[in-house]
Amino acid sequence: MKLSQETTEETKNSILDKAFARFGHFGFGKTTMAEISKDCDMSPGNLYRYFESKKDIGAGCARRCMQQKLELVREIVRNPKLNPEKKLQAFALELLEYMHYQFSDQPAVMELVDFVCHERWDIVTQYMEHERSLLSEILSEGNRSGDFNIPDVLETAKWIQAALIKFIAPRYMDAFTLEELRKEAIGVTAILTQGLKK
Q1: Is the model more confident about 5 or about 7?
Q2: How confident is the model at residue 77, as a pLDDT?
Q3: Looking at the 3D structure of the chain, how many domains does it have?
């Protein structure tokens, strides 16, 4: 019996949920396909129908996490109640909240991050390009409204992304409290927006 596309996607998402929870508790390296299949109440053979390997599951978890981050940024970019300065601050703070929630209490998830960085850097690169594009939308809006004066929007988006990396990357989430990171993010975005103004 052929599964519908919707059923397949639901099953894949359920597998990714269970796998991400296991990676967070036991780490990526120690997790096996057999353990993931057991968590999903399915046979290993059935699990392989959806994912070819643990690495494919890890890549799927990473893609989904990054997609959720992009959706957060899109909501900020399209929020008519925020001016460009507030959007830039919300960009840093909301991604920080999301990343801290995902990683601060699950340090073992960093093994998954390390795997993606070493073996699937293409996923990270693609995400960073999309994120920069959305940042560019905020900066372009600031130019149009007269809030910012940015000669090269794309290049500036790249530098802002680099300046905010501490607040939007998982590496720092278990090293600092959320309160510390929030305070720093507010300070950094304030300095950035001051430099972007006419």
Answers
A1: 7
A2: 96
A3: 1
Whole-prediction pTM: 0.87
Least confident among 1-5, 101-105, 188-192: 1-5
CA distance 94 to 138: 15
In this structure, the number of other CB atoms found within 10 A of the CB of residue 93 comes to: 17
Is 49 within a domain?
no
Annotate the chain with DSSP letters as a single string.
-PPPHHHHHHHHHHHHHHHHHHHHHH-TTT--HHHHHHHTTS-HHHHTTT-SSHHHHHHHHHHHHHHHHHHHHHHHHT-TTS-HHHHHHHHHHHHHHHHHHHHTT-GGGHHHHHHHHHH-HHHHHHHHHHHHHHHHHHHHHHHHHTS---S-HHHHHHHHHHHTHHHHSGGGTTTS-HHHHHHHHHHHHHHHHHHH--
22, part of any domain: no
Burial of 191 per CB tally in 10 Å (0-12, 13-18, 19+): exposed
Residue 147 near residue 63, CB atoms below 8 Å:
no
Indicate which CATH number applies to the domain containing 134.
1.10.357.10
pLDDT tier at 8 (50, 70, 90 boundaries)? Answer: confident
Is 35 a member of any domain? no
Residue 64 lies in a domain: yes
